[in-house]
Every structure is written in C-alpha cells, then in structure tokens.
Amino acid sequence: MKKLTPGIFFKKLVKILRGRPQIPPSLQDNQLLQTILKRRSIRSFTGQEIPEDAWSAILEAGRMAPSTVNLQTWSFIIFTQEQWRQTFDLPLPFGGKRAIIVLGDISRVKESIDIFPQSPLVEYTVAVLNASLAAMNMNIAAEALGISSVMLSETGKSGFFTARHLQEVLNLPPGVFPLMTIVFGYSKQPFAPLPPRLPMDQICASGKYPQADRKVLEDWLLEMKTAFKAARPLWSFDGQLRKYRDDIERAERELRSLVFREESGS
Amino acid sequence: MKKLTPGIFFKKLVKILRGRPQIPPSLQDNQLLQTILKRRSIRSFTGQEIPEDAWSAILEAGRMAPSTVNLQTWSFIIFTQEQWRQTFDLPLPFGGKRAIIVLGDISRVKESIDIFPQSPLVEYTVAVLNASLAAMNMNIAAEALGISSVMLSETGKSGFFTARHLQEVLNLPPGVFPLMTIVFGYSKQPFAPLPPRLPMDQICASGKYPQADRKVLEDWLLEMKTAFKAARPLWSFDGQLRKYRDDIERAERELRSLVFREESGS
C-alpha cells in the first residue's frame, strides 16, 4: 500500500476538487439529468424552513417508489427539529430542518399474507432493497425541489449500524429494520466536492463481471484518505478504520439478532 | 379475509384505474417532480434502440449514486439483446433493448481495506442498500431521458430470488450478490395503471412508528388480488402464492450460503 506523502496528497486533492460527473455533451440541456447527476450529499443547512407542499411531495416520492411484487416493504418516521430532540435528546444533525428515518418493513406483509415459510434472509433482503429504492426516490424528489439532503446509514445513531438502538428508542415491532436517516434542508455549502468515485470500467462491464484492477483500487484508496485528511486534518484515517472495526463487530451481532430473531436468553 | 366477489372486483378495479400520485397543486409545474412521481414499471417495449449517449448517462447515474462511507458497493453487468441471449439462452424480457444486472458488491472493499473483521450480515446490508440506491438512480435517469424500465428482483431468473443461479452463470466472486435486473427500452404501453399503493398514513407517521390498520391492509390485499386477476384472468392468486412458497424456501437456502459462505461440503 502506497503511503500518503504530502506530494501525493496535493496531487490527489487537485484531482478530487476537479471531479465531475460525465455528462454527454448532447445531453447537457437536460435539466432533469443534470439534477440527478449533480446531486451531492450535503452536511450543512441554512435556517430556511421546508414548505409543507414540498415536504408532502418528497414523502409521496417514497410512497410511489417501485418494489418487489409491489409489496412496499418500507415505513417512514418523520421528524421536525423539535421532534428529533424530544426523541433522541440531540439536535438534528448538520442543522437539518426535517428528517426521515427509513425502515425496511416486512411486518405488514407478514400480517396480511400469512402463508409464507420462515425465510428471514429473503424477508430482510426484500425489506432493505425496496426501502433503499424509496430512500433514493425521496432524495431525488427533494433535489427536484431545490432541497438538499444526506443519507446517514452509519454516522451517529441513525442507521443500520445502530439498528438495535433505534428499534428500542422507537419501539419497533419485529420485522422492521432501521436502515438510514435522511436529513433535509437548504444547502449552506458553497461547493461540495464529489467524493472520489471509482472509474466506470472498474464497476461496469459488458456481458461479464467487471474485474477490478488492484492498482486502480490502491489509487482510489489514496483518494479516499486524501478526502478524509482534507476534511479532518487532525484525525487519523487508520485510527478511524480501527474505530470502525469495533462498531462493525457490535453491528453484526445486533443485526443478526434483529434479522434472525435470535434474542439473547431465548 | 374477505372474498373477492365480482362486485368487489369491479369496485377495486375502478379504484386501481383511477389511482394517481398525489402532487400538490402548487408543484404541478415541476417537470422533474412529475417525472419521478409518474414513473411506472413498464413491461412492454418498442423496437426503438437506446442511443449511446443516453445509455452512458444512465450508467453514470449509477456511478454517481451516494453510498455508505462512499464505498460504492455495486457493480453493473450490462447487456444488449444479443449478449443476453448468448448468456442466458433466452430473449431479453418484455422485448427490452438493454439490461443491467445490478450486483451488491463488497469484494473491492474487502480487497482494498483488509482490516475488517468477518461481518457477513453488515457487509451484505451495505451491499444491498447501496446497490439499490444506484439502481433507483439509474431508473430515474432513464425516465429523465424518456426511457422506461422495469426492475426484476424476483421475476424469471434475474434477481436475488435466483442469486445462486446468476452467480454460477456469471462466474461471480465471493462478496458479490445479484440483486435485480433492470430492463430498459421505450414504452409500448399506452396506459400503465398504478399498482395499488398503501395509503400514506399506513406507511408514514410523525415521530413514531406508523401502526398499520388491519382493515386497510385487508382492503389493500383485495386490491392486489384484483390487479393480479385483471392482468391474468386465468391464473389463481392463491395458487401463485403457493408457488412462491417453494421459491422462497429455495431462495432462503441459497442466500444464506452466499451471504455466510456456507458452501455445501466445506
């Protein structure tokens, strides 16, 4: 693994700051496409309130998302700043104005159609897959309305990394899996650089699995370290990875108990 | 459970045919919002080819999707009609012109950052969640270009229901999980009714989990049966459910072996 020397750091930083989506010149005029491709995760919001009509349209985009056999395996818990503080005793992250906790939810299906065998992993997959489709649809609908957002799936205590905590605080029934919190507001960031994306030929191939190139992966990891260092000069990337290790072990235990209903002591 | 009498069937059919997304009157002029909310899964395509610039823009929307810690846990295998036939010995479903098999993919992350403990369920969740975000982004990007699509996650042999089959045919390495096939083309359907959606108050609540109403769920299931009967008058909904039961048992075994690497004989 190459070391992140000051020279490499600077070179990679320039590359990151120049990162842009590839939009075919013939399609530059397509506003919808521009909105979709230029979307960024925003982590700093102004004090401007989200109008009620925009808020309902965002939620409607969740309800209108496609799903496996139209099973709509999702639920949304919505929060104002006040409700978030009352529930979690913390401010809404990044000064966001509203938030949605997106839940994968198989409980309604199990209640209405009770002929299915126990199939916890299939149920979990259906729940996670479709709730994620709904989440992306809400995120893009917000963009269409000039409203920014960020999906928190491992940050703080608001995603699947802390599913058990959320299950307890929100009193969720079995078959309901916290996935992420989407925080919404109007962006206060003058420029949001594109986090380093893998080149298209590393993630996409024609008719066969795209075999990744180890050198390109190393390069990408250096860019990830650079982005991390640039945003948090005093933090250690490797230290952060070590912290993740403990979090992941806990998350694994908790997810298994949620998905397979392996309660301790039962 | 109420029976689907001819009277109920007709009443529910009218309701389904009248189903529309709720778009606030003040936002009717927003084209992108209209595109997102009026999107339908399309299952019949014309012979018109998808232009190359549009196709690259759709893939770029996948590459630009947000992901947990920017890990980009997805891969896309793309197909023309000919490539699909060569690979699966079958025509591309519904006369679609192009297809993408969307894979949840943790293999690159495991290769570049090797300090993580074994955490198969966390890895699977990261893979499924983020690959689904990319899938939705590609679907909406296509819509923005006037191109329709359908996501097949359980139909045919093209999604997570037959992940093991796809792993074998496509020779996928460990840590790669087939999720769905998205089939793209220009719509041949003059009208695509909205599959019966649950009312907003059943899936969304303010500050707390939305408790579903058993009567509303029963009503929704009658609508699901009606939609099924209207599309396939000679088939039995309950018979189809029984068929699913076997498929689900097989899918559960196969997914467990893929996710937890429980190979038979090892």
Biggest interface, and residues per chain? A-B, 118 and 118 residues
Spatial order of the strands in the main sheet of chain A? 1-2-4-3
Mean pLDDT of chain A: 94
Beta-strand content bin of chain A? 5-15%
What do we call the CATH homologous superfamily of the largest domain in chain A? NADH Oxidase
- CATH-defined architecture of the largest domain in chain A: 3-Layer(aba) Sandwich
Major sheet details of chain A: 4 strands, antiparallel
* CATH fold assignment of the largest domain in chain A: NADH Oxidase
Overall 3D shape of chain A: globular
Q: Number of DSSP strands of chain A?
A: 5
Stretches of chain A where pLDDT is under 50 for at least 5 consecutive residues are none
Counting DSSP H or I runs of 4 or more residues, the number of helices of chain A is 10
Q: Please estimate the helix content of chain A.
A: 40-55%
Class by SSE composition of chain A: alpha+beta
Q: Which CATH first-tier class of the largest domain in chain A would you pick? A: Alpha Beta
Spell the H/E element sequence of chain A: HHHEHEHHEHEHEHH
Rg of chain A from C-alpha positions? 20 Å
How many distinct folded domains of chain A? 2
- The separation of the N and C termini of chain A measures 45 Å
Looking at how many chains there are and whether they match, the oligomeric state comes to homodimer
